[in-house]
Specification:
- The protein is α/β, with parallel strands linked by helices.
- The protein folds into two domains: 15-278, Aldolase class I (TIM Barrel), CATH 3.20.20.70; 287-323, no CATH class.
- Helices cover 41% and strands 14% of the residues.
- The chain is built from 13 helices and eight strands.
- The chain has helices at 20-24, 34-47, 76-83, 103-106, 127-139, 156-167, 185-202, 217-226, 248-254, 263-278, 287-294, 300-307, 313-323, and strands at 15-18, 51-56, 91-97, 117-122, 143-148, 173-178, 205-210, 231-234.
- The protein has an eight-stranded parallel beta barrel, surrounded by four helices.
- Strand 2, helix 3 (76-83) and strand 3 form a beta-alpha-beta unit.
- The chain starts with 14 loop residues before the first strand and ends with a helix.
Length: 324
């Protein structure tokens, strides 16, 4: 596949999305202070970030509102309390997870919302429902993207069929998602080539959402970027589930577009991230996450291992092997 641009190229199709509240919320059950969220919004605006994902549109019938912070549900009033009418170039996004949201009722018309983009998250086997959700969001006036999760465990033929389904839908962007942090740059390059074939055929943009189990989230993100991916997910200080995500500070330091400014990101990290860690949020590379990444397994076992304070890594490794 031909490389798209080089280290000195400014690509006008590139869009940076901050997923700190959504993926980072998985590290603290979405209990962010208003001060944190306000500061994050201001930092993203000043940094020139294109989209800020506020969290999930989760069903209140399925999830107890008393056990999660408000960014698990992204009520319209809560979003507007932060962004007002959002008189900025920053666009607001939320994630709607197939099977975990009441999208027909909880996602209102775009004309009445501060949200600009709906990000539908799906597995291969729930693709028909994802298509319905995409069509619903598009009919309501939103930009729409789709994250196909856990592709490292999916058959190539199934992925290609899913890409064809999405290609024929009104979705604008299709995401490569390394859910388990198991992919290497060479694999990302090959997957990007497969996705790009469908994207070119149907006139779609591509995105990447990477996890850092093997400390490759940044490397995989720029590998995908180099070969044509446009939407780039990142989080402040890499905050996210388990091993975390591609760090925003690394990504903005790499991109050469003068619209992006790393300074507000660094200010936010020094003023806010330390507080979140002191409050008990834990994320980042560690041996258990590395092992689930290497073995292409869901990080839930590693998360439990970390919560228990285990350091018997060799025993944990054999336990993982028994699961395969």
């Amino acid at each position: 596949m031909a490389q798209k641009g080089d280290l000195m190229t400014v690509r006008q199709d590139v869009r940076v999305l901050d997923a700190t509240l959504r993926d980072g919320g998985l590290a603290n059950n979405f209990y962010f202070s208003d001060e944190f969220v306000n500061a994050l919004y201001r930092a993203n605006v000043k940094a020139g970030v294109d989209y800020m994902e506020m969290g999930y549109k989760a069903s209140k019938e399925m999830f107890d509102v008393n056990k999660f912070g408000k960014w698990k549900f992204c009520n319209e009033d809560d979003i507007r309390a932060i962004v007002g009418d959002n008189n900025s170039d920053l666009k607001i996004a939320v994630m709607a997870d197939v099977g975990r949201c009441d999208y027909k009722n909880d996602i209102i018309c775009r004309s009445d919302s501060a949200v600009d983009m709906i990000r539908v998250a799906t597995y291969i086997h729930t693709m028909p429902t994802a298509i319905e959700m995409i069509e619903d969001a598009k009919n309501k006036g939103y930009e729409v993207t789709c994250n196909i999760m856990a592709i490292s465990n999916a058959k190539e033929s199934d992925i290609k069929q899913a890409l064809d389904m999405l290609g024929q839908s009104p979705v604008e962007g299709i995401y490569i998602v390394d859910s388990y942090g198991s992919l290497f740059p060479e694999q990302v390059r090959n997957i990007t080539e497969m996705y790009m074939e469908a994207a070119d055929k149907y006139g779609k943009l591509l995105g990447i959402h990477a996890h850092n189990n093997q400390q490759l989230a940044f490397a995989n993100t720029i590998e995908a970027l180099t070969h044509g991916v446009s939407y780039l997910d990142a989080t402040m200080s890499g905050m996210g589930r388990g091993a975390g995500n591609c760090p925003m500070e690394l990504l903005l330091g790499f991109l050469k577009n003068p619209k992006y400014n790393i300074y507000p990101v660094l200010q936010f990290i020094e003023e806010q991230i330390k507080k979140v860690k002191e409050e008990g949020a834990v994320w980042g590379f560690d041996i258990p996450y590395m092992l689930t990444g290497q073995l292409d397994q869901h990080p839930s076992a590693a998360i439990d291992c970390m919560k228990e304070g285990r350091t018997d890594y060799s025993s944990f490794y054999t336990e993982l092997l028994d699961r395969i």
